[in-house]
Amino acid sequence: MSPLSVSLRDVSVKRRGKTILGPIDLDLGESGFTVVLGPNGAGKTTLLKVLHGVERVSGGTVQWSAPADAAQQAQAYVFQRPIMLRRSVRNNLAYPLQLRGTSKAEIAREVSLWAARVGLMDVLDQPAPRLSGGEKQKLALARALIRQPSVLFLDEPCANLDGRSTREIEAVLRAAHDSGTRIIMTTHDLGQARRLGSDVVFLLNGALHEQGPATQVFAQPAQPETKAFLDGDIVD
Amino acid sequence: MNDIWAGILAAFQLIVSLDADLVEITLRSLQVSLSALVIASLMALPLGTWLAIRRFRFRRAAIATLNALMGLPPVVVGLIVYLLLSRSGPFGVLGLLFTPTAMIIAQVIIITPLIASITHQAMRELWAEYHDLLISLNTSQRQRVATLIWDGRRALLTGALAGFGRAIGEVGAIMIVGGNIDNATRVLTTAIALETGKGDFALALGLGFILIALALMVNFAIHTLSRTERHGTW
Fold it and tell me: Is any Cβ of chain A less than 8 angstroms from the Cβ of B132?
């Protein structure tokens, strides 16, 4: 797990002639827990997908501190609506390791380890699509972390989850961050952003409106729109 | 109505007496149709899946052609295979005409588009569901195809069974390329056609009931082996 940084220069994404994101310049360092904030339609998910390389940019460059292939291999992404393979929980966890050609013994060990970490030991042999929303999100998170990524992208990982599930997922995220995984996460939950974030990126209408350390942005936002958003006002 | 009762009786007698001819043509029917099914599936499953995930210039035309080929008239397929395998044809030297191999070739041509098209439909839905995850995991084309085929195997089984149903019930093409030769290429469907032509409706119906029973048994066997109805097992 080697640390990665990324720079976006003049990046824009257009769909059917409409600008969804950018043009944007953004630098994200090798470590930290970045929280991407902004109202609906601000471009948060698009930014995450651009960084991960699954969204094609209309202009500009995305430059990782490693070659493109190596950078992609060192990343993992957890989608807002967790995608479950039509397999058991055990086989969902094993899947990323099977792709890498990991030995069966190693896979079995890692699957048990991660299932225990996220509290899914009791449902290991159940079909993943039949899990509850919270369990699915925990499985998606464990399936991402089992690859030991340098960078983990999370798109609203706790949307629609109850307090207990949110707390459990946040604990896993803190542990991953403490062990050196760089995390970039979108969220609507300002409380969660305050609890977890080390730095904040605030997007508005597809543009980067403000970026800085979380303590500074939350205490003294530089932009009036950021302050209004953090105060709970409707911003568009 | 009398013919139907006579047919049921004839089928019962043939089965109870384990008629040697019946056993032979039944086994040949299974051999030809299952061989065709395996060969067609090996081609059609990856092809249908590949069409679902791959974007290329003439993709729509390829899918439309595949769907159109589902309606291939078996008699025409039989005629073309006959011409290709006949002594004066390009593959005449192989001496395959009027052999079970020729019948398998004709059935493969008939059922491959059917299985590929059903596979494409099923895989298109699964690909829409898996797309973001498999792209995110940086999977290769081969890994995507393998994942979709494995996870969509229950839907693919339906396609394969539809192919088997068409193959085991097919008569036009295998009559032309097989010749319905006794002890060589006669199968249940061609035997039914022969007995009907001779006016022995009871025996033809009896063979028909056995054909239906055979198709049902193969379906049940495949479902049981693949555990499609055991909801708790993945």
Answer: yes
pLDDT tens for A102-115 read 999 999 999 999 99
Contacts of B135 in chain A (CB under 8 A): 54
User: What is the strand order of the sheet A18-28 is part of?
Assistant: A18-28, A6-15, A59-64
Mean pLDDT rounded to a whole number for chain B: 89
B136 touching A, CB under 8 A?
A: yes
Q: How confident is the model at residue B9 (pLDDT cuts 50, 70, 90)?
A: confident
Residue B205 has pLDDT above 90, yes or no: no
Whether A86 and B151 lie within 8 Å, measured CB to CB: yes
Contact A80, A116 (CB under 8 A): no
- Please name the residue of chain A whose CA is at the shortest distance from the CA of residue B151: A86
Token code pair at residue B171: 């008569």
Superfamily name with CATH number, domain A6-84+150-230: P-loop containing nucleotide triphosphate hydrolases (3.40.50.300)
- From the CB of residue A5, how many other CB atoms can be counted at a distance below 10 Å? 15
Question: What residue type is assigned to position B24 of the chain?
Answer: E
User: In Å, how far are A1, B39, B169, B224 from B218, measured between CA atoms?
Assistant: 51, 17, 13, 10
**Residue A155 backbone phi and psi in degrees, to 5:** -105, 100
Q: Predicted ipTM?
A: 0.88
Mean pLDDT of the B47-60 span = 91
Domain regions of chain A by residue span = 6-84+150-230
> For the packed helices B20-53 and B153-168, what is the interaxial angle rounded to 10 degrees?
140
**Domains of chain B, each with CATH number or no CATH:** 2-226 (1.10.3720.10)
Segments in B54-152 forming alpha helices (H)? 59-69, 74-85, 100-136, 141-151
Paired with A184 in beta bridges are: A34, A153
- CA angle, B200 then B202 then B207, to 5°: 100
With contacts defined as CB-CB under 8 Å, which chain A residues touch B234? 86-88, 91, 125-127
Please report, in angstroms and rounded to a whole number, the separation of the first and last CA atoms in chain A: 39
pLDDT digits (tens, 9 = 90+) for A7-55: 999 999 999 889 999 799 999 999 999 999 999 989 999 999 999 998 9
Contact A83 B135 (CB under 8 A): no
Q: Measured in whole angstroms, how far is the alpha carbon of residue B223 from the centre of its chain?
A: 16
pTM for the whole structure: 0.80
A59-64/A6-15 β-pairing: antiparallel
Whether residue B129 lies within 8 A of chain A, CB to CB, comes out as yes
